[in-house]
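Form 12-C: Joint structure prediction
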Amino acid sequence: MARSMCWHCQSAVTGEYFCERCVKVQPVSKEADYFTCLGFPRRLMLDSKQLEAKFYEMSRTFHPDFYQTKSPAEQAISLGNAAVLNTAYRTLRDPIQRAEYLLGLETGSVKDIRTSPPADLFEEILELQDTLEEYRSSERDSQEGRELRTALETEQRALEQRKQEMETQLHQLFGEWDQLQDRGESTSQTRVDRDRLLKHMRALLSNRTYITSIVNDLATTIA
Amino acid sequence: MAYSDKVVDHFNNPRNMGSFKKDEEGVGTGMVGAPECGDVMKLQIKVQNDTIVDAKFKTFGCGSAIASSSLATEWLKGKTIEEAQQIKNTDIVQELNLPPVKIHCSVLAEDAIKAALADYQKKADGEASGTK
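Section 2 - Result
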């Protein structure tokens, strides 16, 4: 993860985080992705315990507190490394964020992977929003208000159920992705599989975001 | 971060909220979403003789997304198809004074306009060639 040449003594760096010759801390490479930074392969089913252990280990290595008596250059490097490390861990520890991040690495921005917008889901969300609006302007204790509330609660449960199903499905795709990567082949078939998986994950992740967003709105309105 | 007065105004008094029937003659529907934040936008235009005579929107999202689509419908009314194509998200950013973190809302509005125009065009072409 370190640069190939020590910033201090200019010798080739062989150690992982420190120069073996002058023992100076080395900055994390700016090009390294979060997986590389934490020393994990680009997979979607990472062991959270292992990830956490590695994070703690590296935190101890780079924590700015341990560099208070060192030179300003070393202090700056430790601070920079600790910051990258924190972001990397925060991104990778959550499976959904991890997948979003990996998709970004594999495909560029969200917009670069074209999936047709889920028109039916959008219609549903906009309709639900109308009902929410009606509920907001109704008398809570009136017959109408109570009926709307019951209807919204039913919708909320149904949407949460769907979100759960999507997550189960995503989890399956994560496994398929990892298997494909583990095989490490590059045939026309694996490329087709790769694109299919990326597209499918992209669509599910997006739909999950839409549903999360309306569910949150539902929850705060009828709370 | 505080919303600009114009955003607040559009948010409190959204212009042209509502919808047309999708299959109504001369109606183009654009339905877009932002997978990053979960915002959903539906923007519709009603066209007569190549001019947009009416526009409506429905948006599920933050204040900036609502303001962007509300403003878009205001601008669309009275424009020709060709003029409507020229509306850029940067115009919306400027008019509403959107901060950098809300620029994607204006992009969404531009996407919605483009989608509505494309849908109208597709319907119009279909009718012209009799393959509706």
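Section 3 - Comments
Chain A has a mean pLDDT of 90. Chain A has two domains: 1-93, 116-222.
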